[in-house]
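Hypothesis: this fold can be encoded by more than one sequence.
Test: take the structure tokens below, design a sequence, compare later.
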């Protein structure tokens, strides 16, 4: 092999090594930050407390929102996380480290189980603030699976009024929605509730036959790319709308 070819060969090798070293910076794909932690307590279906370096840290699971305490399926969501208490799990960060409450935002893994994804798959949560996340596709596919199989929060209501009540309008700019009773009898909606993708809820009352009811928001709730859920008093799904 000539000296020139030897120089070219080693130049290529050197260039490849340099490229591989700086690849994360070039592509924006830095190595995932992970921590092994001890799960000490379940706060609710999407929040846990872990011990890391002898410090208790509160963690909010990324990309999901489970029912709030005292709402249907809230105990089931918390119960799912309960199986990992007193076990070592792996947390993985994304582009944002903490939320406005100071909680760490993380994906959680136990052995081969992607916990955030599994909660969605079981229908114990809806996808939440998922746009641009590393595992956005996995989370949305898990939610889609639960929705198509009517699991958990996606189980359809069998109430007589479930076929009557329709979402006639959702105006996210003026912050109101209109429900319509299309049936020829009055619908008592006591115990029924509307919620967005997060924790905002609205209680409902009766709607006379073939009439509409307008419900106004007292604060900014209906964000772009939000979700609208209407549940009956058992927590079964009546209306779902995504925009």
């Amino acid at each position: 092999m000539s000296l020139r070819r030897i120089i070219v060969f080693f130049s290529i090798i050197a260039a490849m090594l340099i490229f591989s070293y700086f690849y994360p910076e070039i592509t924006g794909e830095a190595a995932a930050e992970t921590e092994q932690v001890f799960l000490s307590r379940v706060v609710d279906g999407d929040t846990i407390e872990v011990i890391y370096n002898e410090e208790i840290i509160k963690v909010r699971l990324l990309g999901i929102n489970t029912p709030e305490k005292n709402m249907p399926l809230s105990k089931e969501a918390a119960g799912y996380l309960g199986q990992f208490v007193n076990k070592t799990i792996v947390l993985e960060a994304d582009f944002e480290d903490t939320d406005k409450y100071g909680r760490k935002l993380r994906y959680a893994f136990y052995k081969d189980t992607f916990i955030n994804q599994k909660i969605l798959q079981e229908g114990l949560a809806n996808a939440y603030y998922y746009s641009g996340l590393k595992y956005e596709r996995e989370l949305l596919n898990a939610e889609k699976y639960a929705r198509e199989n009517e699991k958990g929060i996606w189980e359809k209501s069998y109430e007589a009024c479930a076929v009557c009540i329709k979402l006639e309008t959702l105006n996210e700019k003026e912050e109101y929605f209109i429900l319509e009773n299309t049936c020829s009898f009055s619908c008592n909606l006591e115990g029924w509730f509307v919620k967005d993708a997060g924790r905002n809820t609205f209680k409902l009352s009766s709607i006379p036959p073939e009439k509409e009811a307008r419900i106004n928001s007292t604060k900014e709730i209906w964000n772009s790319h939000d979700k609208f859920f209407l549940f009956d008093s058992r927590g079964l799904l009546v209306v779902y709308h995504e925009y």
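The longest strand covers residues 34-44. The first helix runs from residue 3 to 27.
Hypothesis status: open.
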